[in-house]
Write a structure and sequence with these properties.
By secondary structure, the protein is mainly β. The chain is about 0% helix and about 40% strand. Strands 1-4 form a two-stranded parallel sheet.
Length: about 55
Amino acid sequence: MVEGWALDTVFAGNNATVNGTGYGFTITTNKDPNRVTCTNKVFQAAKGYANVACR
């Protein structure tokens, strides 16, 4: 990843159809400034909505 990328990213209003074992949204770096809002819809994601709490 290039330095400075994926900072202050907001995931909102998305539909994620996973059909698999993972999460609908996975935030792996910069977890604090990035966020997943509670307005997304996640379908068939075995691990759930996201690996971080929606806010």
